[in-house]
Amino acid sequence: MNVQRRVTEGTGFGIDIGGSGIKGAPVDLAAGEFAADRLRIPTPQPSTPAAVAQVVGGIVAEFGDAAGSLPIGVTFPAVIQHGVARTAANVDKAWIGTDVDTLLTEQLGRSVHVLNDADAAGYAEARFGAAKGVDGVVFMATLGTGIGTALIVDGVLVPNTELGHLELDGKDAETRASDAARDAHELSWEHWARRLTRYFTAVEDLLWPDLIIIGGGVSKKGDKFLHLIETRTRIVPAALRNDAGIIGAALLAAELG
Known about the structure:
Layout: E1 11-17, E2 21-28, E3 33-34, E4 39-42, H1 49-63, E5 72-76, E6 80-81, E7 84-85, H2 100-108, E8 112-116, H3 117-128, E9 137-143, E10 147-153, E11 156-158, E12 167-168, E13 171-172, H4 174-177, H5 179-184, H6 189-207, E14 211-215, E15 235-237, H7 244-256
Parallel strand pairs: 1-5, 5-8, 9-14, 14-15
Antiparallel strand pairs: 1-2, 2-3, 2-4, 6-7, 9-10, 10-11, 12-13
Helix pairs in contact: 1-2, 3-7
């Protein structure tokens, strides 16, 4: 996603749509942090487009003037191609083929930019977090229920990489190396780190990144496993934690205009 980057200031607004919760907050675009406490509402079940759009509208309305007048950035757990959802992870399959940009633009009455959740988090880390000031190729992997990935090259986001689905030991990598796989298989930190080593080595051989960032809730436990991963690339935990998606979405929406 090649944006015309400019000095961004003022307040933007980001929404993070997940399988269990929908979160939103105004974002200080200069500081890269929330301008007010985020609001979280459980994702409706079933999580159909109409039901989710209504919740998103309610979150924005709750903040009133604090939502600002800039476009709203929205993260979504799917491949997003020109605003259209091509997959649906942890949300209703009715989303596949839905023009999410148009749906939410009509719901909110203002311009909306939708992107993959890992892409938003990775972009925020590149601008304000663990990869701030890092040139070249930055690769981020969010280790959770699956493996979400983001690729940023010299500050430009390459969307929808989906590299969590690389083949690892003859299987989809996220079924072997995600945090959910660690829990399901009752892996020790050492055993899991060996799987992560194989995964990140495969990524290195394809992309030759200058930095690897590990996101997801497990990044808070980085002291238990990061030093056990053997790669030639420096690996660091995400700095913005669970705020990254909202911040990255708000920032990209403001830059895209």
